Amino acid sequence: RIDCKCFHLVLWLGESAAEKIIGGFDYYADFCEKVRESGLEVERDEMKREVVSMFSGRTSATVLRNPELTWKKRQRSSAIQKPLHQIILRDFPTEWPELRRNFRDDEKNDFLNRKGARLFYPCVSSGIRQSGLEKVGILLHDGLVFSGDESQYESFKAGFSSEARRLLGFELPIEAGPF
């Protein structure tokens, strides 16, 4: 599996976030720690879902009205999003309002998802060409299940990263799971 680490955060915050993540910083774990200070215990995977949900334009109010979620899941999500929203406002006082303005201007609230697709697919295509593979695997959200071996991954990553640098001006943080 190949994963673009914290893809929504990098799309939002840009190069500074990418550099921190490449250096080992984990935004989701950091958000968990800060939410725990409010007395709520949150696991990293749960936090990632909530952050991605917020970056898809959802708020605690829209979560509470979501009929697709059980009452318990709506309550839990809302309980996490309330302190998380305050943390994001505090830590990113200029960046968050700008992102929210983009959501207001985008009726489907998928501004970051579309931005990510415009970036991710050319990078994957470049990685495929560089690795010489005809097929790379199955695309999965902000990553993919990779069908090659470790040396093919290194070639794929070089092509992927080169295209990201061309499009963004900086490297995207990607990592591979076990081969």
- What is the typical, i.e. mean, pLDDT? 85
Given the helix and strand composition, which structural class is it?
Answer: alpha+beta
Number of helices: 9
**Number of E strands:** 4
Low-confidence stretches: none
Which percent range fits the helix content?
55-70%
Percent in strands: 5-15%
Would you kindly provide a written description of the structure presented here, covering whatever features stand out?
It is elongated and about 50 Å long. The model has no long low-confidence stretch (mean pLDDT 85). It is built from 9 helices and 4 strands; from the N terminus they run βααααααααββαβ. It has helices spanning 7-13, 15-22, 27-36, 44-54, 60-64, 71-91, 95-104, 111-131, 150-168; strands spanning 2-4, 137-140, 143-146, 174-176. The protein has a 4-stranded antiparallel beta sheet, with no helix packed on it. By secondary structure, it is of the alpha+beta class. β2 and β3 (143-146) form a beta hairpin. α1 packs across α8, α3 (27-36) crosses α4 (44-54) and α8 (111-131) crosses α9 (150-168).
